[in-house]
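INFO worker-7 received task bundle
INFO bundle size: 2
INFO processing item 0
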Amino acid sequence: GPIHEGDYDTMANVTLGFKSSLRAEIGPLAWFHVNVANEVPIGVSSVGTSGADLLHSCLDMGLKLDVAHEAEVDFSILEHNFTQHWGPHADRHHDGAVLHKCKDLHPPVPEEMTVVV
């Protein structure tokens, strides 16, 4: 019987990430923050036809990373106030691709199917 052909054209995307903050305080005198945020976008794609010998599949992965800090000091000595604020200051920023890997796969050969009516 005839085998029907079809196209493979699939794509899936997902983004994983987290945010974190570390804060240290010295009573009412001073504080310090470090903030970290990252995202990892992941994409998978496959293209081909059932009649072709190969199915072209790719995995792409990126990384977006932001690290920043901020601090403040506020105290008085002998009726003199000292207040100083630093930041927020970006310590690290990265936004780019970290992986692009493709592989040609052999799709499964469809079996003939007989329909009895």
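INFO item 0 finished
INFO processing item 1
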Amino acid sequence: MLLCMNECLLRVGCCCCCCCCCCVLVVLLSFTGALVCHNSDLQLNDFCAGAGKPPMFGDYEAQRHWQEVTYNLPVQEWYFNTTDNDLNYWGLDYPPLTAYHSWVCAYIAKMINPEWVELHKSRAYESPAHKLFMRATVLVADLLIYIPAVVLYCFYLTDGSSRKKVSTLFCFLLYPGLILIDYGHFQYNAVSQGFALWGILALGLGWDALGSMAFSLALNYKQMELYHALPFFCYLLGKCVKTGLTGRGFFMLLRIAVTVLVSFALCWLPFLSDPSQALQVVRRIFPVARGLFEDKVANTWCSLNVLIKIRFILSRDSQLYLSLVCTLLAVLPSSIKLLTKPDFWQFKLALANSSLAFFLFSYQVHEKSILLAALPVCLLLNDLPLVVIWFLQASTFSMLPLFLKDGLLVPYVVTSAGFLFFSVYLLSALERCTEDELRLGAYHKLLFFLPKMDLACMMRWKFYVSIAAMAGLSVASVALVPPPHLPDLFPVLVSVTAFLHFLGTFIYLNIVQFSRPPTRKSQKKIN
């Protein structure tokens, strides 16, 4: 008995020690990353979106301006066009939780330097000290919300040894796309993704009400979390139906519904007293006047636009209906599969397939929206390492025109190369490139009419060619001048190349979801 107790204590001690070491490692990595970003900023001058570029000055100024507005104006004016709040100049277009976060940041900024959030006079304010403060707010949000969720997911909901879990954690946090957008271009994507990941973590551990609350917070921080909403809905509804809607399942569904309603009500409380306030917020966060897509986003409509000018052929309403129908058709198979088989493996795949379907086919997609697909794909790092690394590399590459516009070439090259090297090495991605590991069995059935091929070898060579093509296009985008009659040649080539990668990943993950599930359990059950 004493031996058993000693063994248990030893295991607990080892786990605690391992977790502590991981947390310290993560904090050090994050702090180092923030310092690198700031130092690069000082060396490369305008190392953030739109710095010194009137009249709008980019996303960095948008975040600063929201702090100015939320601190100086009453809540009732945050989403309305007034003499003190020009909605044409970075008007708030995110849900209330983003506004509250901006207010908290502004309160701290006011204590440090009132000039940073002074009404009207602070417009387009830029200084090294302010940039350091803004990036510090991103880091604090990461440390409080995103990183703890990633750590817990990697240690509690992935299989393998402690070393493998640490490697998965390291690669998860090294994903260049999120780092470059949040710290370089400048946004707070990790906050909404962190809340969503807390929701995924809670559902994986069997805490459905808590998971519903966390995902409600994600939706109330960024409306684009709707990319993940259908899998959450289907997974929870499927569990309730499986349990029995005439008994325990009904009370489970009722508890989840009440949790979601209360969470939304609390987030929207300041706007519920006046229906016009709530309607204005909804109008701001769901604008349909902006068009089918923006810039050179790597989705279906932008790629198709090279051959067929959809935006000129169809009316805006027709574009909206077309994208809605295509998105629903794309997401339907995955959702039905999850609804009929609500387990955690299906849930992870449905999250990836749903977010990719929305990115590829939905209305008003930004190039940064690929981050919403990257999060659920990251959840599969331990299961499908080569495919996930490949996709994450392509997702970062798809935002290359944006990074070049923001002066982020050097950070893009360094973070992309570092992620590729460490992830392939630490996760043994090329060594694990077998038909069983890649779940390619279903492909032989689909390609029965062709001679039997070594699909794993083909995947490996496609990976090499793909990485070489992305590297070549990255160099060409910087080193070569496009012909005068094709000024957008390289952004379009980047967009179409990335689109083909995303479409291939979408088809692959759908086939994996409908094929034989892995024999090992992808979650730990807690009663």
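INFO item 1 finished
INFO post-check item 1: Residues 1-32, 34-46, 521-527 have pLDDT under 50 and may be disordered.
INFO post-check item 1: Residues 5 and 11 are 10 Å apart (CA to CA).
INFO worker-7 idle
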